[in-house]
Structures are given as C-alpha cells and as structure tokens.
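User: Hi! I'm working on a homework problem where we have to compare a predicted structure to a textbook description. Could you give me the structure for the chain below?
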Amino acid sequence: MSQNKMPTAQLIPPATARAASAPISVLLQCTNLGGMEKVAYSLFDQLQVRGFRFKISSPRPWGPGRNRVLATDATAAAHNYQGKFGWQSFPAYRRHTLAQCRASEHLWVIGNCASCLMAARLLGRKTLFSHHYHHFENRGSRARWTAFYLAFGASVNAITYPTDFTRNEALRIAPWLRKKMHVVRNGFDVHYTDEAHRLEARQAARRELGMPEDAFLVGNGGWLIQRKRFDVFLQTARQVLRQVPNARFYICGGGPEEQRLRQLAADLGIADKVQFTGWVPDLTRYYQAWDALLFNTDFDALGCSPLEAASHGCVCVASCRYGGLSEFLTNGETGFFMKEHEPQKLADELVMVARNESLGLELRQRAAALLDLKFSNRAALAFYEHYFRGGRD
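Assistant: Happy to help. Predicted structure tokens:
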C-alpha cells in the first residue's frame, strides 16, 4: 500500500463502524467524470458506509459529476473559477471553505488545484492531499513542480499517490517530503468471475446498448483531448478492420478534440464502424459489452479505464509514452502494453485477442487476480479509515 511504515488499519465492518465525530471537509478540484473524480466518488460511497460524513466544495463550476457529489453531500457547493489559477474568485471561495470547515477536524484536498491547496493552507486544519497527476511532462516541469511543493508541501500532513511511479517522481523533486508520501493505489472491485457469467453479461449489455451481438467490439472512454491520443485509437481501428471486418469501435466521452476525431474517422474511411457516444456517466455496461479496451495516452499517472475495464473481464491493449500504467499491465500477462504508439502493433495484439479465445481467457484471469492482489479497495480503504480515525501520519 505504501512504501512508508504507516500502521496497517483493519477495516471496520459496516455493522459496527462508529460514526466519525466530525465531517471530513473535502476540497475537490472539479466535479467531472474523469478517473480522479470517479475514484473519489467511489471512496466517498464506501467510507460513508463505514460511518464517515463529508462536506464538499469545489472552486470550479459544476461538472457532469454533480449528481454523484450531491448524493454524498446535499449541501455541496461549486464556485466560479475566474482568473489564472482561480485567483480572481479565490476570496469568495476561501470564505466558503472557512464556513465549511468550522465543524471539521480533517481537510482532504483531492486534485492538484492551487486554489484548494491555498485555501487548505490558510484554514490551518490537518490536511491530507491526494495527488493524481504525473510530474515530468516537458522541460519546464521540474521547475513548476518544485515551486508547487515548496508552496504547499509544508502545510499538508500527508500526500497520497496512485502509483510508485508518481511517488518516485515526487521524491526526485521534493525529497524533503519523503515521510509524508504514501502510495495508495486506486481501488477496484473485481466483478469478473468466470467465462459463463462474462458471456451472459456481454450478451445482455449488447442487447441493452443496441450493439451487434456477434461482432468484435473495442472501446475506450475519457476526455477527448490531445494527450489522450484517440487519434491513435482510430488509426489502430483502421488496421484492425483490415483483418477483422466485423469489428466495431466505441468512443465514450467528450472534449475539444471531438470534431477533429470525427473528421479523422471519416478520412480513414471507418466512420461507419466507429460510434461516438458522448459522455457516459457509468461505463459498466460498455465494459461488459466490449471484448477489449484500447487505451492510448502520452502522459498519465495511471489511467483508470484499463483497470475498470479489466475488473469486468475486458482485455486491455494500451500504449503510454510516460506514466505508471506498466504497474498494472504486463505485456502478454495481464494485457498488452507498449511505450510507443504503434497502430499496426496495437492492431496485431487486438487481432490476436479476437482470434484466440484461450489467450483472452488467460489475460482476463491474470488481470483480475492482479487487481485483487494489488489494486483492491481493501488496501485503499484501510489507509483512509486509519488516517481519518486519527492514525499517525
């Protein structure tokens, strides 16, 4: 769970969990439906069952995850985010967080948001900071992140990272914060049990979503932004279709790249084989319907979609130039993974999955086993429950 010697907390069964004495005040970077936010919403749900209460605010306007947040805290608030880093609207946000935190013993900052961290620093409460982003994206990254840790590192009590990769990056930048740094992996419940149940769920999901029942289905979901490389997804799709003509491809999400990607699909001659669904609040039925997830990114601390998909028995094929995804995906063991975006090689791997049922079975079983061993909700919840019940940092 962590490279530090933090005491291990035993999970308290929901029936005997004592209520937390005061609500945990959460400063949430945004209320979207990206990986960071969905992990947070899941943690809120599971910690509430264990007796914790939350008061939530975001310095940004409401996003598509609004209903998930309000289900946790009916009084949650979102704010205008004006000026660089939100500084123009910061005084109003600070006043709100001051009122929000009066009854709280703990502050939980989720996301690398300067407004949230500055508000936390000024509030003077015990603060847990959940870091979710990679550090070394370009030449100026070290200087920016050094300034970030100098500005906020001393005012937080503990920092969590989703992978060893991101924690090791942070250690290179701010080694003086070593004792505060913990690896707390994103937790996932494993739903895949056996092939009979998977195939039954696949058939039901395809009928519900209006998808062809006898095709090879590949998908991905997320923000349609440049670094997520949905252009590689489409280029790979074209190569797959040359070998598996009945394949179909699904892109779930929205963002500034959508129109360009639609045009690319048309230029590649595969527009009729690719469906853009828009934002999907819950991808469960899609993961159940798809045979494989094709995930491509230039930079990502982890990328939750491959782990979510694998939890439902969806084989993952991925390329990531820089990130921690290799801590889950081992090429040919738990899926297929490469560091460079090579559409032909990615396509070849998808074709192998389409044509070799025994290979797909082995990949699904190993991925599910690794999720349960290394990326379980048990470990994540143990950390947060121990911390918020007053465990030592």
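For your comparison, note the following. The longest helix spans residues 357-374. The first strand starts at residue 24 and ends at 28. Good luck with the assignment!
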